[in-house]
Amino acid sequence: MNITVTRRGTITVVTPEGRVDQDSAPMLDAALAEAEADGGHILVDLHAVPYASSMGLRAIVACFKTLHADGRRIALCGLADLVAEVFEIAGINRVLRVFPDRAEAMPYLIGEDASDTARPAPGDPGDAPDGDAPADRTEPALRVVFWGTRGSLPTALNAQGVRGKVRAAVAAAVRAGLTPADDLDAFLDTRLPFGLRGTYGGESSCVQVDTGHAESLLFDLGSGARRFGLDCLARHGARTPRTYNIFLSHLHWDHILAFPFFAPAFIPGNRIRIHGCHETMEMALRRQQEQPSFPVDFSVFKADIAFITLTPDEPVPVAGATVTPFRQLHDGESFGYRVDRDGRSVVYSTDSEHKMADKAEVDGFVRRLAGAHTVVFDAMYSLADTFSLKEDWGHSSNVIGVDLCRMAGVSRLVLFHHEPMHDDATLDRILDQTRRYEEINRGGGRPLQVVTAHDGLVLDI
Asked: Is 315 helix (H, G, I), strand (E, B) or coil?
């Protein structure tokens, strides 16, 4: 990639030519730093850039933050169609001003009024497909069941939300000329987006990995764990002792709050093994059931409960699989987990931020994912949010998820830990945008399947 830096009065124009990706992003960083040192406003002319990854976007947003703090301005112009789509998907247009060309950008940079010309995202909301088991297996090596997929706080679909869905579905049926003789289920399944015919749900983080073993394997104790516990009792009965292996990513409340409501913990004969890399696991779970926060003390549980402290990067055999914890970037420390069985792997990585400018950090995380079939990934924020307002909040984005999974050769990316403020229509739109971003960035490589997790989703590996 070539970059020219020129001065026009109080404005420095940075003009890159070629792809802005992981390899060339440091060059853009250096050019923007040179422009910042000039002390004026900056115009980034992208007319000769056919492609931009999250690394290039990070460099531009970082420059914006520096200039904004100094009372200076930055604008973009000349975006090719695909680059404009990437900026829209990443939410960059909500942070930066984008113009068709230099002539329209200059008045904004010198303080005159000018309008933003960012375009709306293309496409309609996408569906959230269930995964298919590999064709060469009668039984999956691993089955992933999502019991809770929200981040930070459980949410519920209220009466207004239900009414809105019903109204939109009826309107769609009227437009389609649906009659009593038509197949109603076929209409719902093929003509309506998932976010309209169903819901992504509101339970907080809880994911089961079924290895086919008699012992259960569960990740996090968000509110979805309550339903998991009740389902286990319905399937196996309260009189059948079972072992539950629970792995905690970290000890923030949204990931442990369901344990006081975890029905198997009340039943004598059950064995509950709570695994994690935090030495304070037991203290955290006991403390949340102390007065004045909770009316029922931890001692009410009748199951055999034990806490097992793990060491990062040391694999442990559990429930017929191998589970390997690894450290992640999140306040109070978070740990992801890789589960391997019979040559198939799934990675559970929530509450993790990724500093894409840190090559060592990126390379290390890519090694964790390498060879995995499915990655459950924290995509709570837009890329623009992770680089600006919500930087250092410990979460990631859909765009970064695509980039990391493509680097690691992953087959399927599952968007997870959804922002509580996002309704079903918003999650549909994010899925559609993420698939489009994957398509733009695919090049000649094999496709990366992108799925948005919802409560009740089952994926076979």
From this structure: coil
* Same domain flag for 35 and 51: yes
Strand order from edge to edge, sheet including 216-219: 304-309, 271-276, 243-247, 216-219, 206-210, 143-148, 458-460
CA dihedral 420, 424, 430, 434 (to 10 degrees): 110
Residues 392 and 244 in one domain: yes
Report how many domains make up the chain: 3
pLDDT in tens, 218-245: 999 999 999 999 999 998 888 889 999 9
Token readout for 278 is 């935090």
| Same-domain pairing of 93 and 215 | no
Q: What domain range is 101 assigned to? A: 2-109
173 within a domain of the structure (yes/no): yes
> pTM score, two decimals?
0.79
In degrees and rounded to multiples of 5, residue 328 shows phi and psi of: -130, 165
- Provide the terminal-to-terminal Cα distance of the chain, rounded to the nearest Å: 40
Tens digits of per-residue pLDDT, 122-156?
333 334 444 433 334 457 889 999 999 999 999 98
Domain for residue 166, yes or no? yes
Tracing tokens 């009414």 back to the chain, one arrives at: 163
Supply angle C-alpha 382, 355, 85, rounded to 5.
35
Classify residue 92: in a domain, yes or no.
yes
- Tell me the three state secondary structure of residue 313: coil
Sort 185 into a burial class: Cβ within 10 Å, 0-12 / 13-18 / 19+: exposed
Residue at 105: amino acid letter: A
Q: Is position 133 within any domain?
A: no
User: pLDDT, tens digit, for every residue of 34-43?
Assistant: 999 988 999 9
